[in-house]
Here is the input.
Amino acid sequence: INMDLNAIIESMETSDQDAALMALQTYNKKMTRCFTFTTDEEEQRERLGELVLGFLERDLQPSCQLACLETIRILSRDKNNVAPFITHTAMQTLSRHAGIAISNGNVDCEGSVVLVPFAENPDLEVIVEALKSICNICLHNKVAVQVGQDLQLIVGIAERLKQCGEDQWNHYVRFFDLRLMFLLTAQRVAMRTQLLRELRGVSLLSNHLDATLGLYWPDTFEVGRAGVEVDPDSEEPAELPPLSREKIERAMEILKILFNITYDANRREVDEEEAAAFRHLGAILRHCLMSSTDAQDDTEEFHSHSLNLLGNLPLSCLDVLLMPKVQQGSIEYMGVNMDAVNMLLEYMEKRLDRGKKLKETMLPSLNLLTESARIHRETRKFLRMKVLPPLRDVKNLPEVGNALRNKLVRLMTNIDTDVKNCAAEFLFVLCKESVSRFIKYTGYGNAAGLLAARGLLRGGGNPGVYSEDEDSDTEEYREAKSQINPVTGRVEDEQPNPMEGMTEEQKELEAMKLVNMFDKLSRSNIIQPMMLGSDGSMTQMNSGDLRRMRDQIPQGQQLHLQTQLRLEPQQEQQEHQKEQQDQQQQQGSGSEDEGEVE
Here is the structure.
């Protein structure tokens, strides 16, 4: 192989175009499936890369251009061998062949600089190979990304994306345009901001997604698929045909770029123009959630990207999920179309049932449902009907069973803090942030984590702005209400009294044993005694709190506790004196040792 590479380099050094073409085609055919490289040939590969770049500066026939770019694509797979390709000159050469290089800025009548893409080569294969090479280089090297920023590559890509309705660009040109834009925005905040602000990225990419999916708009925020006829007499909703693999691939790249540039949109104020663009995008995303492909894995990935992006949109824009008119066969609740909300709920439960990577796969949909329920009354009531129907089972623990409520309550004790907090927050919102209702459906033990974090262990609190609900207590719940253990959330079997048959003195002795054990654990810093503060949050107990507790104990039971409290200062003083004596003895022995050494 070494000799072959040297022979190829010799052919390139002759500068003969035909000899170079034959040598490169042989190398490319041999290395087409090579993705790992040894260190033995690093110098030769670097030299080959330099020679190929030099060839691209010449006026070559398309077949030779293509062979050179294929070689660069293969060489750029090796992250340790991209040095020849990350200079400004090399990146400029590659971007020119990709058709996204920017010419010198022209100034329009308003004094603004207009950047025009420098597209000199209409050969689509050459463009695709150049784009693939730039993608490899930017994936492996941060310096190349900075050079791409300096060369304004993202502006050139954006200019070509505006031509999304033209047939001259095939799938591969469009796909690798999007892939390169994703790589650039994923690694540079400045390019994310530039795409969002200067290039109006949300509208630009929404329009490109619209064209990719072939949408039409029967109403402002209602989306349909071009070519899909709706039968007004049918009781079933119009079934959307599966999207092609090519459309799904491009659509997912668009969704990933939009995610990059909108990551903070729900944490900042947006103006009316931005809100309108986000609502328009939200309507498209709703359509994405209701669409599918022939491959189940592709459908799930497509839905996952759509959900992640929906979670970035400002909460005020999520109303587009409920805007489509109710049609025959759609899920209707309180006069509102709940198809999208029901799809989100089913998606979340599927991820929950799988039990793998819940934080990555389930939380986006669960967070989206929580926020939608918080701000939309119809959504909250629909979800409550699905997740927290009127309580009938009062014999089993809330976390036992296969109903969605049981599954979510089990998540409230998950080892992942984010997962358990999101599950608790979702149920708390469905309970209108009512502590008593929350405990009713989950049990005090499961609810304690959220209640402690919010300072609601004493109950009460501000339940937020929620509409009134009708009384949903079932006959079974009313009959058993007085017997339900609020900690476990179920009717417990009657247990024998462990103190039955004991005298009052024996009971007091057992109580004091327990106090002494807690005291010992506390002094050893194994546990920290806590108490419920006036604000409902947990606070540390101090000696003053203990005295107040002693004063609240009935007079006949105070004797032993008072003795304990009175003995504590004496014990501490004795221990302190003993420590001082030990320290003095150690110092004395240390002085004697030092004298002996001298």
